[in-house]
Inverse folding.
């Protein structure tokens, strides 16, 4: 006897609306997966061609609020490539700071959801409260807890003075021991281990075949981090050390994310302590001629690519972007098949799905 | 650079029709290659080389032109970005998904957004678009309400604001 | 707060960027946002809910599922629209895939604009929702004004909240209107001058306007109290008149450069008096005559 199970589209354990149709056998093991998408499709690729280059700085930020800094960042890189301008070094540094703060907060949110899904409430609360340190920082420095509005064409909109640098360093000082404790717990806590080790395995061969990126790739032993493979901003000098794991399970992916946060802390510290002098953006607004460009950045979930085509007017002719979840999503089928129905939302969470990003 | 050469050589050898290959880089010196195919039949040849080199399809972009559609496949081979451009005037292209499974969604997406059929694609299901939306929505750029009523949602909402202001 | 029935909350995402949903989770699980004080229970099934928290601009695909889902909720219940998207579809408006705003499909009680609203504002909105629910249950009249329930929330100076305008500095140059991604600013010509309107309920609080404004006339405040009754949806605006001046030479109406702008163009030098007294055309003519006569 096979049982049909549907999850979604509106489900309290899902941040975003997705719709699963599963078949399961008597042992509640999934034998067939059907995923229905499109609930978050907002027609954004069409919208960006209706808006001018300044408006699109903000619209791209609203693709998804968890990697909301990466979108305008990549978008700005594409415009800057077409305009042929070089961003001041101080701006590059400030872009890294904003991005890594965001990465830390985003990864912590995903980990908190993991703890939530395995009903480990203390761990969830602890993770959320640790994340609050980053949230408060974002609100004080950038003015919003999710959408930082940090980037502008040819630079950034914000600057750091000594007082703010001090605030960042102090925050990181409080943050670091908390992160260490979280890392320890996610690695060894009995409850976590019992529910995540060996669950939702993505073998390396499948990971390669499906072209997954980010912590999903790294959890299966593949490093295609853009910050390493095609470094941008100051990443060439900062040399991020990425965490690689071989197990390919929910646990491995979680540990890769924690490793990313540790690196984020290191890099933020390094950058704010040695902030280059200079402008935060070019004084002159760039002239954007006809042209096309493809650029890539590493979002918290993996590789983000932007393609931009312009014709010399104030609006893009075509803009397209592809987010990590777009390719990581197909890997879900591999992970879910053969798993218990009760693990499905946990496995879904382990790719840190960003559906708003994917469906645009 | 050897790494680039190791890519471009087999790539060029595989192509049967005219093409242009340009080497560019991003603002940080990372190589970006642009291959423009004169004939879309060369797409599979190029994709096969990428597959042999262990590359993956990052995504694909489509847009409408006067005569038909331009398609750009964005591929990655160990950190090097390769953009392959082809055009179609008959709403079809040979699917590369059988060679590069990572292209699965990208090809399905231009099918539903632009009505271009990736011939030989193993999956026929809709990706994002609700059934209430016609396939090929991106071929036109205005929302339905604007097309049918001649006014946009913005016009309607702001009219209310103006009315309340005068009230 | 005295309660007759336990508030049971269910959240629906109608196609949000997930910002509002992530912040909802923070609101629900981080104690400093006080949600626990309301005794709200998060329920697993929509059938059991009496408070619906709804985010997102209502995408085409969400709509049918949404209507099906909410048909199962038994009145009385309260609907809280969270985020600019839900109130007016905000930045996503006029896309082919957006069928919202929310109030086309359900009667909304409380709105909270923000992009995303901070958890303090979401908590306040839910608190208002709980209060309205009690009124509905007891068949009491609905409040006509919302009194802030959580009065101890503060916002940092730099928080990007409600936008404001210093009309004295504004030259009605329309830069803010052009760069605003959500269509929250409208500048219209009237008999007396230009009317500058900011509609907070469709603002995404991005600060683009203040960043690009050449005179510093438009600015963000840290006011995050955007919680409102549905009735106030279209009236929460900031309206200012930028009056015309009569040109001393030809008598035509014009908007003079404001002091703020003049200071940027003439940081050190003496300011030519003509700038505030004559219209641009007369100025051009005067200058021309001076040079070539
Ligand atoms: S209101 Fe803003 S943060 Fe909330 S869902 Fe909409 S775009 Fe995202
Ligand atoms: S607020 Fe600033 S940008 Fe807007 S019209 Fe006035 S001067 Fe121009
Ligand atoms: S902050 Fe300014 S630019 Fe941004 S949406 Fe609001 S009014 Fe528009």
């Amino acid at each position: 006897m096979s049982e049909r199970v549907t999850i979604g589209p509106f489900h309290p354990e899902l941040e975003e609306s997705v719709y699963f149709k599963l078949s399961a056998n008597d042992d509640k093991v999934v034998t067939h997966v059907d995923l229905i998408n499109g609930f978050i499709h907002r027609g954004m690729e069409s919208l960006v061609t209706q808006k001018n280059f300044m408006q699109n700085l903000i619209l791209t930020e609203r693709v998804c609020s968890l990697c909301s800094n990466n979108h305008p960042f990549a978008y700005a890189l594409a415009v800057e490539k077409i305009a042929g301008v070089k961003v001041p070094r101080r701006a590059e540094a400030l872009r890294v700071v904003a991005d890594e703060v965001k990465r830390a907060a985003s990864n912590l949110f995903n980990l908190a959801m993991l703890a939530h899904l395995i009903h480990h409430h203390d761990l969830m609360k602890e993770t959320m409260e640790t994340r609050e340190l980053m949230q408060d920082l974002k609100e004080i420095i950038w003015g919003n807890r999710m959408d930082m509005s940090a980037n502008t064409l040819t630079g950034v909109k914000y600057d750091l003075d000594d007082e703010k640098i001090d605030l960042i360093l102090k925050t990181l000082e409080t943050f670091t021991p908390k992160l260490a404790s979280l890392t320890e717990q996610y690695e060894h806590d009995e409850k976590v281990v019992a529910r995540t080790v060996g669950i939702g395995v993505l073998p390396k061969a499948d990971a390669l075949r499906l072209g997954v990126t980010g912590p999903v790739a790294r959890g299966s032993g593949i490093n295609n981090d853009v910050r390493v493979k095609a470094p941008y901003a100051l990443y060439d000098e900062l040399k991020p050390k990425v965490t690689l794991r071989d197990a390919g399970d929910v646990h491995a992916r979680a540990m890769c994310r924690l490793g990313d946060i540790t690196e984020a802390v290191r890099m933020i510290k390094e950058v704010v302590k040695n902030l280059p002098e200079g402008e935060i953006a070019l004084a002159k607004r760039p002239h954007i001629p006809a042209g096309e460009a493809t650029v890539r950045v590493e979002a918290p979930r993996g590789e983000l690519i932007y393609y931009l085509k312009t014709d010399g007017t104030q609006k893009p002719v075509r803009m397209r972007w592809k987010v990590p979840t777009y390719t990581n999503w197909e890997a879900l089928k591999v992970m879910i098949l053969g798993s218990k129905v009760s693990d499905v939302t946990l496995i879904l969470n382990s790719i840190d799905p960003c559906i708003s990003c994917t469906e645009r | 650079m050897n790494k680039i050469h190791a890519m471009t050589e087999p790539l060029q050898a595989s192509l049967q029709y005219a093409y242009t290959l340009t080497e560019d880089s991003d603002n940080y010196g990372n190589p970006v290659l642009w291959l423009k195919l004169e004939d879309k039949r060369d797409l599979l040849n190029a994709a096969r080389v990428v597959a042999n080199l262990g590359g993956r399809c990052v995504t694909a972009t489509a847009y409408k032109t006067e005569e038909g559609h331009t398609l750009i496949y964005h591929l990655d081979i160990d950190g090097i970005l390769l953009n392959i451009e082809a055009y179609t005037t008959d709403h079809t292209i040979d699917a590369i998904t059988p060679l590069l499974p990572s292209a699965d969604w990208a090809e399905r997406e231009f099918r539903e957004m632009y009505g271009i059929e990736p011939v030989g694609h193993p999956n026929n299901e809709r990706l994002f678009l609700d059934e209430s939306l016609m396939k090929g929505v991106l071929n036109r750029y205005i929302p339905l309400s604007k097309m049918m009523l001649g006014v946009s949602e913005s016009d309607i909402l702001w009219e209310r604001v103006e009315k309340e202001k005068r009230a | 707060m005295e309660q007759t029935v336990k508030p049971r909350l269910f959240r629906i995402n109608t196609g949000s960027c997930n910002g509002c949903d992530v912040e909802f989770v923070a609101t629900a699980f981080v104690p400093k946002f006080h949600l626990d004080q309301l005794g709200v229970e998060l329920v697993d099934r929509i059938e059991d809910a009496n408070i619906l928290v709804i985010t997102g601009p209502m995408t085409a695909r969400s709509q049918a599922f949404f209507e099906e889902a909410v048909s199962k909720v038994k009145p009385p219940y309260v609907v809280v629209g969270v985020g600019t998207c839900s109130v007016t579809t905000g930045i996503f408006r006029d896309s082919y895939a957006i069928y919202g705003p929310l109030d086309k499909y359900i009667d909304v009680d409380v709105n909270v604009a923000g992009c995303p609203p901070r958890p303090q504002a979401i908590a306040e909105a839910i608190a208002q929702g709980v209060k309205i629910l009690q009124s509905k249950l007891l068949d009491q009249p609905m409040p006509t004004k919302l009194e802030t329930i959580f009065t101890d929330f503060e916002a940092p100076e730099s928080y990007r909240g409600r936008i404001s305008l210093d009309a004295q500095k504004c030259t009605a140059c329309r830069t803010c209107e052009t760069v605003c991604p959500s269509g929250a600013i409208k500048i219209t010509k009237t008999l007396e001058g230009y009317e500058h309107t900011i509609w907070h309920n469709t603002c995404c609080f991005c600060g683009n306007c203040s960043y690009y404004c050449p005179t510093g006339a438009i600015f963000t405040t840290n006011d995050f109290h955007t919680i409102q009754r549905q009735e106030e949806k279209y009236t929460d605006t900031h309206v200012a008149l930028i009056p015309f001046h009569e040109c001393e030479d030809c008598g035509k109406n014009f908007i003079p450069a404001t002091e703020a702008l003049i200071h940027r163009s003439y940081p050190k030098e003496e300011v030519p008096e003509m700038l505030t007294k004559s219209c641009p055309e007369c100025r051009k003519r005067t200058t021309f005559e001076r040079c070539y006569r």
